[in-house]
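Students often ask what a 'structure token' actually looks like in practice. Rather than answer in the abstract, let us consider RNA methyltransferase, a protein of 178 residues. Its sequence is given first.
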Amino acid sequence: MRKLKTIEMHRMTVSDFKQSDKMPLIVMLDDVRSLHNVGSVFRSGDAFRIEAVWLCGITATPPMPEIHKTALGAEDSVDWRYFDNATDAVDELHAMGYQVCAVEQCEGSTMLQDFVPDIGKHKGFAVIMGNEVKGVHQEVVDKSDCCLEIPQFGTKHSLNVSVTAGMVIWEFAKRLML
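Now compare that with the structural description of the same chain:
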């Protein structure tokens, strides 16, 4: 086997990306502190052509060198919006016809591998990733349609926000794009 050169990968341009069909998924970051996590979510979002990243509360917005360091320019390709308050963003998502899923360990949560997005019932989907320490705020969980949980089998009870986002985006891509 031979590794492909970048030119052999035939990547689309930012302009082509902007005009392309997107997976009907918005990733919302609720008070995410690390700019590197924010950049990583943009990069994963670009890889799977998500619709947008919504940034809420203390979550930093582009342009920022620390976001760019991990996003590698994906902050330019993936659409984004900022909201002072995550609950306002959830209200807008509902008004748009999206199913909103907090990614959190909750009573009655659905394991990620068991979630089946009903594309006929919803215009699209939104997943909410929470703060690195406190997770998704309870008032945001309360407004969500469901909670998705990633099963874990070790001694820790959480994953890094950007790792979680990548896993969740991939699961949606398997169901909505492949």
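One point worth highlighting: The chain has seven helices and seven strands. Ask yourself how you might have guessed this from the sequence alone, and why that guess would often be unreliable.
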